[in-house]
Model the fold of this input.
Amino acid sequence: MFIMKRRLIIAYALLFMVGNSFAQESEVGLCGGVSFYLGDLNPSGVFMGSKPAGGIIYRYNINPLLSFKSTALFGSIGASDAKFGKTDEAKARNLSFVSPISEISAQLELNFMRLYNVEGKNPFAPYAFAGVGVFSFNPQAKASDGRWYDLQMIGTEGQGLNLDSMGYDKKRYPLIGVSIPFGLGFKYNFLRYYSIGLEWGMRMTFTDYIDDVSTVYVADSVLRIYRHPIVAELADPVDYHDKHAPGTARGNAQTNDWFSYAVVTFTFKLLYKTGCSAMGTKSSRVSYKRR
Done:
């Protein structure tokens, strides 16, 4: 319920921004596709574990080469050592997670060709984009009791134990972070008011905990005594006699996690301006047409 409310707030915020930016160069629309992640549990499998994603788009066309774009995207990601582990060590670790992933961002698009909405002018263009965003996530895993648990809350790497004398004083990681979206796309204008396209973008982040895996193992006995046996199970889901020694590497804290969206886009112009120098041809006479 909390995640749904958060997604609605993001969507309403973007729509509010769109509602206050109506202009002849503006367009709004929807997108749909897939999302995936790269990190400790999927180090190099581009598009592996892809899950459905979608969202809404607002674009302001500054001129035929440059546009401002804002997006609100929603999807899910996940991975497991059992499926994506490339080494015997990774498969023996046996960790897994799933997480919703949501992002609101502001971007600049640079068209490689001049793009127009009027007849007789170029109607398509490949483009590159880059910007900044804010994203949210919440890694979860399923335990042997059949229930799903929020991994950040239970502290699988000892977060929140506050046992300074034992060396366990880590704080819980935030579930909201900053992303740097960048990528490539292609768009095509048709019937004056409409545009379709394809877009793929990576998201660089500044956290290594999208998958809840980063540093070292905590002693199994500590988690059982000071937390719960389920926490100990999810922190190191192997047979009791195969538990990893405290302090051994659970993940690679030197590299942060990434996530990605690949989507098909469809947008329409909010107002159309004939003779517009930004997306049409220059003219001394200006008229506005609503759809």
